[in-house]
Amino acid sequence: PEPKGGLYRVVAPPQNEAGGLGSNKASHTLPWALPWRFIVVSENLAGIVESNMVFDLAPENQVKDTSWIKPGTVSWSWLSDHASSRDEAKLKTFIDLAAEMGWPYSLVDANWNTISETIIEDLVAYGKDKGVDILLWYNSGGPHNWVQEEPRNLMHEPVARRAEFAKLQKLGVKGVKIDFFQSDKQFVMRQYNEILRDAADFQIMVNFHGCTAPRGWERTWPNLLTMEAVRGSENYTFDAEPYAHLAPAQNTMLPFTRNVIGSMDFTPVCFSDFVQPHITTDAHELALAVIFESGFLHPADSVEAYKGIPDEWKTFLKAVPTTWDETKLIEGYPGKYVVLQRRLGDKTYIAGINGEKQSKTVKVDQSGLLLSDATNARFTAGEIDMPAYGGFVLIVE
To answer: Which residue in 282, 267, 279 sits closest to 241, CA to CA?
Structure first.
């Protein structure tokens, strides 16, 4: 609801959430240590965009050996073809895409278990031959969850969950995407942390989808690579017409808001039209691979779409990092435009997107290969034009 008199109020989750199970009032035995409640305030927007406060306030790392935790780019079939996760042949084409692009992972989405009894073994073996590891989708429910997508009833009970993680570890599956939590009641919040703890025991990386907002858990459990908690690209199919027209402005808001508090599984870089045509340009979509931060980056378009882009763009998507040592806001304003500089080691990228219909010119004082709506060419420090809803990526040299 709209805030009355400009006041926002914090309320408990409605009691009817999660099928009415569990109390909507938190309880604990003493002594009770409350989590941090905080507001990020800065004299300028850069201080917000570059903030690590959520991470810094979270409990310290509980995973002694983190050598197996490896972020990376993930091929993903579901958005471009909702039925693909029930089709072994289609899934293999996305494993092939990951191999061609040098991406380490391919995600197999909902209802994969309906294909065959040996589908995990078959896909893991196929991926291994291609140098690609497999991530698998799971339903979080449980009786607290009305969504019937499968597999379900494996993530809410500790014994079943740990048995499943042990099985996945033995088979060579590297991670899971767990979806549809549907409430912030205390027992569901506890489930998140128990999943992360159990997954760490079996060296399984985690992506939470249909979930709460990040709370710094990736510090405590670094096997948490990303979380959704955002109206991402899938809304081009679920909420097509309004979403398509609001997306350019929303994309410029997220670096100042949602992405400040943690990795964001937006599933970006979509060049194709899904139900409703994009009004963002292709270069705007390309730039989201840098503008949005996510430990698992899921480019969400089809195999054909990525095969059809310019060679320079393909080279960029093959190499772009999914984690960063440093982020700087060059300029921008929520809802209008944003230009970010991100660095990993000696690799630096500058990306910009325009959220408005009016074209914009931004000044960049570095040089490199410019990928934009107008050109893919060498750029010397100066001005870069962004057309309406456009964007760019500068690979700094």
So the answer is: 279
- Tens digit of each residue's pLDDT (9 = 90 or more) over 30-73: 998 888 889 999 999 999 999 999 999 999 999 999 999 999 99
Query: Looking at residues 370-377, what average pLDDT do you find?
Result: 97
Q: Let me know how long the chain is.
A: 397
In the set 133, 164, 179, 198, the catalytic residue is 179
Q: H/E/C letters for each residue in 70-132?
A: CCEEEEECCCCCCCHHHCHHHHHHHHHHHHHHCCCEEEECCCHHHCCCCHHHHHHHHHHHHCC
Q: Which amino acid is at 52?
A: N
What does the mean pLDDT of the chain come to?
Answer: 96
Tokens standing for 100? 């061609």
**Active site (annotated) includes residue 81:** no
* 273 is an active site residue: no
Q: Which of 229, 300, 239, 394 is nearest to 247 (CA)?
A: 239
The per-residue pLDDT for range 254-302, each reduced to its tens digit, is 999 999 999 999 999 999 998 888 999 999 999 999 999 999 999 999 9
| Secondary structure element (H or E) that encloses residue 386, with its range | strand 382-386
In order of 75, 257, 341, 377, the CA distances from 325 in angstroms are 24, 20, 11, 27
- What is the DSSP track for 2-37? PPBTTB----PPPTTGGGG-S-SS---PSS--PPP-
Predicted confidence band at 135 (pLDDT cuts at 50, 70, 90)?
Answer: very high
| 278 SS3 class | coil
Active-site hit among 109, 228, 234, 293: 234
